[in-house]
Specification:
Blueprint (H helix, E strand, L loop, with lengths): L3 H5 L4 E5 L4 H13 L4 E5 L5 H11 L4 E5 L4 H9 L5 E2 L15 E2 L1 E2 L2 H9 L4 E4 L7 H9 L6 E2 L10 H5 L7 E3 L5 H6 L2 H12 L4
Parallel strand pairs: 1-2, 1-9, 2-3, 4-5, 6-7, 7-8
Helix pairs in contact: 2-3, 2-9
Length: 205
């Protein structure tokens, strides 16, 4: 079982995916992995999300498939049961810890939440929504008082500003949806998805 630290270090960008059509899940995931983005966050915002996780985890070689928008322990357990290798939450979930069958990346927006997360044993956090809570400036401010914390900023991160985040020493990777635009996914243009993923995978070099 990989730790959340190991998972975040696999690629500079984690695609944040809202999948409406189960039939698109595997080809979308394969296109992203082919472009160099093996870590896939499937948000639990659609009726087919859990089925997508199960199918992608079972059928896509090289993929590390996780569940996003996990907001309670029951969702975390359900995601792990269908094969999720990690979970991402928009906030801290009371009573949940970092380890377990599906390691958790909790969201924080303030210093108070960071203190609570560190007290609960977390060292890696999702800064969310990054563009609203201070973005690069907030992460620079967090660096000195929270030297043990590492971040995956998500929310408003794009191809245009991803490098600014990735240049920070306390940022391991970023999360974003720009690598899988909804219209491109609906069109089934998997070659375009692979090209976008390849551009994103090069951001960490």
């Amino acid at each position: 079982m990989r730790s959340i630290e190991d998972i975040l270090g696999l690629a500079p960008v984690i695609p944040v995916l809202i999948i409406e059509d189960l039939a698109q899940a595997v080809p979308l995931g394969r296109a992203l992995v082919a472009g160099g983005l093996p870590v896939l966050e499937i948000t639990l915002r659609t009726p087919v999300a859990m089925d997508c996780i199960e199918r992608m985890a079972g059928e896509i070689e090289g993929a590390v498939v996780g569940a996003g928008t996990v907001i309670n322990p029951q969702m975390r357990r359900a995601a792990a049961a269908v094969g999720a290798q990690f979970c991402v939450s928009p906030g801290l979930i009371e009573g949940e810890t970092a380890g377990g069958q599906a390691p958790l990346l909790p969201g924080v927006a303030t210093a108070t939440e960071l203190i609570a997360g560190i007290a609960a044993g977390f060292t890696c956090f999702k800064l969310f929504p990054a563009n609203v809570v201070g973005g690069v400036g907030a992460l620079k401010a967090f660096a000195s008082p929270f030297q043990q914390a590492r971040f995956c900023p998500t929310g408003g991160v794009s191809a245009e500003n991803a490098r600014d985040y990735l240049a920070l020493p306390n940022v391991v990777c970023v999360g974003g949806s720009w690598v899988a635009p909804a219209d491109v996914v609906r069109a089934g243009d998997w070659g375009r998805i692979t090209a976008l993923a390849a551009e994103a995978s090069g951001l960490g070099r």
